[in-house]
Structure formats: structure tokens, C-alpha cells
Design goal:
This protein is 44% helix and 14% strand. It is of the alpha/beta class. The longest helix is centred in the middle third of the chain and has 24 residues, at 74-97. The structure holds farnesyl diphosphate (FPP).
């Protein structure tokens, strides 16, 4: 029996989120520049997206650039932004043909004009597709996301659009970038790090976590299947018994 046959397709997570970690270490071990690790990571992302789409998973959210990543050397930031731009351009052609919807979450105002324009184009080109939605977190930080949301709610209260007593969990979900997207049931972090790093803090309230030492560029279909299979064995109680 191969790994895919062990999966229960009726119990797939609707939403998988990934922290694509370990690109730098992967490159260093091979004597390559860090940017080579990010390029290899982009290939893994492409394959992961196509495989999850084929399986029937509805949403994949990936952490591509955090609000803290601006602290990295300029050369690495430039390489990452260049890669993202190429990825978005290429996605229009490649992922669109595979029926995938692409959305960018995060504070786009700090991205270059060229990237912002490409985001609008790629999102528009893929918006009517009906397969998996790939959410790329770009200049994303969960605390920043919540902070912007709190400001929005406060404005609505101030202007009389919303009563304080009417603020509920749904109100908060609705002011986040992930509005309308179900919370991720499974969050995958490779490369041996065991933290959330300011990623989907609100959305991860009941997520199952899957960690492994493998670096993201080496995260092949075998690991993806293993993560989903492990998820299917978990007993999710949501605080009940
Ligand atoms: C973390 O690994 C990874 C990133 C900060 C960037 C992730 C980006 C990609 C995989 C590029 C492709 C994405 C798209 C959407 C084209 P790290 O560099 O911190 O690795 P390290 O901890 O080993 O140094």
C-alpha cells in the first residue's frame, strides 16, 4: 500500500498552512548562496500546491515574507522579491492552467510598485478559477494584522456603525486578511523550529501542528502525505472531551 492509499480522502483538512523554513540552511549545506535555497523552496511550493490541489484540499497558506524579514541583508531581500515577482508572473500561466486561485495576504503598501501591480494582475487572472486557493503571506505579520483589525473595529464603533456589545469572534475574523477563509486545521513547519513566528496567531487557535527536521526545499510529497496522515490520526476535541 502506498502512502496516498493510507489517506482518508473524506477527512482531508480544508486548509493547510506552511512555514517554509530552512531554505538558508539547505543552501549553506550545499555551499550555495541563500538565494539558491529560496529558489529551491519556490519549486517545492509549486509542487506542494499542485499536489494539494489534486488531492482536493481547498486552501494553502504559505509564509513567504514576514514583517520582520526586512531585517535581512538587502541582497537577500532583493533576491526574494525578484523570486516572488517571477513566481507571480509565472503563476498566471502555470497555476491558472491548473485552476488555482492566488491571493496575497499582508501589508502590500510597503512592496514595490512593480510587485503591487503584478499582484493585482495575478489575482485578477486567477480569481474565477475553482480549484485550491493559494494564499501567499507577503510582508505579513499576525500582530500587525490583528492591530489593523482592532483599529478598523474601533473606527466602526466610533462612527456608530458597530455597538461594543456586538463585537464577537466573527467580527474579529472578518477584519483579518483571511476573511472568509476557514481556519487552518493543519500547520506544517519543517527545519526543526518549533514556533509560530507571528504567523496566523488568531487563526491557529485549534490548529494541529506538524514539525520535522527536513528543510523546506527537501519537503517532498512523501513528507506532505506523512503530515496529513498524522493529522488524520489526531483526536481533535476543540476543548471538549
Ligand atoms: C525561511 O527560511 C524562508 C523565507 C524567509 C522565505 C520563504 C520564501 C520562499 C520559499 C520563496 C518562494 C516563495 C514564493 C511565494 C515564490 P530561512 O531563509 O529563514 O532559512 P534558514 O532558517 O535556514 O536560514
Amino acid at each position: 500500500m502506498n502512502a496516498k492509499e493510507k489517506l482518508d480522502l473524506t477527512k482531508l483538512p480544508k486548509h493547510v498552512a506552511v512555514i517554509m523554513d530552512g531554505n538558508g540552511r539547505w543552501a549553506k549545506r550545499r555551499g550555495l548562496p541563500r538565494s539558491a535555497g529560496h529558489s529551491a523552496g519556490a519549486k517545492t511550493l509549486q509542487d506542494t500546491t499542485e499536489y494539494l490541489n489534486k488531492m482536493g484540499v481547498r486552501y494553502l497558506t504559505v509564509y513567504a515574507f514576514s514583517t520582520e524579514n526586512w531585517k535581512r541583508p538587502k541582497a537577500e531581500i532583493d533576491a526574494l522579491m525578484g523570486l516572488l515577482l517571477e513566481y507571480l508572473k509565472d503563476s498566471e500561466r502555470r497555476l491558472s492552467a491548473k485552476n488555482i486561485v492566488i491571493k496575497i495576504i499582508g501589508d502590500k503598501t510597503k512592496l514595490s510598485q512593480e510587485i503591487q501591480k503584478q499582484i493585482i494582475k495575478t489575482e485578477a487572472m486567477t480569481q474565477n478559477n475553482s480549484g485550491l486557493t493559494l494564499l501567499i503571506a507577503l510582508n505579513y505579520g499576525s500582530r500587525d494584522e490583528i492591530l489593523q483589525g482592532v483599529r478598523k473595529i474601533a473606527q466602526d464603533v466610533k462612527s456608530g456603525k458597530l455597538a461594543v456589545e456586538d463585537i464577537d469572534e466573527q467580527c474579529i475574523s472578518d477584519v483579518l486578511y483571511t476573511k472568509g477563509v476557514p481556519d487552518p486545521e493543519l500547520i506544517i513547519r519543517p527545519s526543526g523550529e518549533y514556533r509560530l513566528s507571528n504567523y496566523l496567531l488568531w487563526q491557529a487557535a485549534y490548529s494541529e501542528f506538524w514539525f520535522d527536521n527536513i528543510c523546506w526545499p527537501d519537503f517532498s510529497r512523501k513528507y506532505l502525505l506523512q503530515a496529513i496522515e498524522d493529522y488524520q490520526k489526531r483526536n481533535r476535541r476543540f476543548g471538549g472531551v
